[in-house]
Design goal:
The mean pLDDT is about 95. It is built from 14 helices and twelve strands. The protein has two domains: about 240 residues, 3-Layer(aba) Sandwich (Aspartate Aminotransferase, domain 2); about 130 residues, Aspartate Aminotransferase, domain 1 (Alpha-Beta Complex). It starts with 5 loop residues before the first helix and ends with a helix. It is α/β, with parallel strands linked by helices. The strands form two sheets. It has a seven-stranded mixed sheet with strand order 1-7-6-5-4-2-3, with helices on both faces. Strands 8-9-12-11-10 form a five-stranded mixed sheet.
């Protein structure tokens, strides 16, 4: 059969024959299943071992749409990141990480990774000529984000893959902001793709989940570690994520369009000093995103000339977006990262990566673009 469009695979990939005629896979609310003699530990059918029917369908669908051999879902996006590092690294190992990361990931690397006996160095995502100087004999992998949170920087992703291959490293990427609809990093040559499935993959702001996708070998290592640590996604959450994935392409394409419209509106307003969105022609990595991505996603950030006070006023005056962290749901959300997603970092750490206190992050939903733009316009008029 010819390769199908991702929109078709999101609906049909991984599905099993109807259970009792049900068009939708039911929730298997069972912690344990019958087993066969001689099964390996990881193959025993047990909820904690991430292999219930709800898990298996999800894994097959995620692997197909991302272009991987295998996938596993986890109890959260942070669990996916932490378990992946613990599966691939041991005491004495070293890795390289992009310098501007989601605040939770940044804190994990700085506060928890050292206690495992693992070392790391931050690298500038768009300065590949500087990476080699930070290599050590113990360097094992390089970790980046497709688009950084919240500044929307796009690293030299092609150079990351080339660098990793040249030096025998694993290339790991957090693809949450793009989703497989906009970018499929495994096709570019990355080894493992991580998502906070809480965001776009689920799309309805009603579960917390994560996933890891890649080769059968590498995902198998992650699954084995995950089975020991127990950060399992429960069957009901699997059901909700399965449901959400089926509309992923429709939602993301609308969010791409909405974010582009909003970014263009903000860029042309006198009260706005700076807009960060890769879909804008003056974004430093605009040409790269046009070449690699099918869309630039639904998240943008911007700074107002009035600083923190103006940011707080604008957030208060917005009527459609809710003032809340997270992103990727059908509803728009607005937040000040210094007070939410990056609050766990010190002011000096935030400053070092360019996250100013007055920075606003807007994650657009699937509302009509005209209504979002009208709402932003009326809020700006209140400044």
């Amino acid at each position: 059969m010819a390769k199908r469009d991702i929109q078709t695979d999101l609906v049909h990939a991984g599905e099993v024959a109807p259970v009792e005629g049900a068009v939708v896979l039911p929730i298997f609310q069972s912690a344990t299943f019958t087993s066969q003699p001689g099964e390996d530990y990881d193959d025993i059918r047990y909820l904690r071992l991430n292999n219930t029917p709800n898990h298996q369908v999800l894994h097959a669908k995620l692997a197909t749409v991302a272009g991987g051999q295998d996938a596993v879902v986890t109890g959260s996006g942070m669990a996916a990141i932490a378990v992946t590092l613990m599966a691939l690294l041991k005491a004495g190992d070293h890795f390289l990480a992009q310098d501007c990361l989601y605040g939770g990931t940044h804190s994990l690397f700085n506060e928890d990774v050292p206690s495992l006996g693992v070392e790391f160095d931050f690298v500038q995502g768009n300065a590949p000529q500087t990476w080699e100087a930070l290599l050590r004999p113990t360097t094992r992998l390089v970790y980046v984000e497709t688009m950084t949170n919240p500044l929307l920087e796009v690293a030299d992703l092609e150079a990351v893959v080339v660098f990793a291959r040249r030096h025998g490293l694993l290339a790991v990427i957090d693809n949450t902001f793009a989703s497989p609809v906009n970018f499929r990093p495994l096709e570019l040559g990355f080894d493992l793709e991580i998502h906070s499935a809480t965001k776009y993959l689920n799309g309805h702001s009603d579960i917390v989940a994560g996933c890891v996708i890649g080769s059968a070998e590498q995902v198998g290592r992650v699954v084995h570690k995950l089975n020991h640590l127990g950060s399992t996604l429960d069957s009901h959450a699997c059901f909700l994520l399965h449901r959400g994935l089926k509309t992923l392409a429709l939602r993301v394409r609308q969010q791409n369009e909405n974010a582009q419209r909003v970014a263009e509106l903000l860029q042309g307003h006198g009260a706005v000093d700076r807009v960060n969105y890769p879909g804008l022609p003056d974004h430093p990595q605009h040409e790269r995103t046009q070449r690699l991505f099918d869309g630039c996603g639904g998240v943008l950030s911007f700074e107002l000339s009035g600083g923190v006070a103006a940011a707080e006023t604008l957030i208060e005056q917005m009527q459609l977006p809710k003032s809340a962290p997270s992103l990727g749901g059908v509803e728009s959300l607005i937040t000040r990262p210094a007070a939410t997603s990056h609050a766990g970092m010190t002011a000096a750490q935030r400053c070092a990566i360019g996250v100013e206190d007055g920075l606003i992050r807007l994650a657009v939903g699937i509302e009509a673009a005209e209504d979002l733009c009208a709402d932003i316009t009326q809020a700006l008029e209140q400044l």
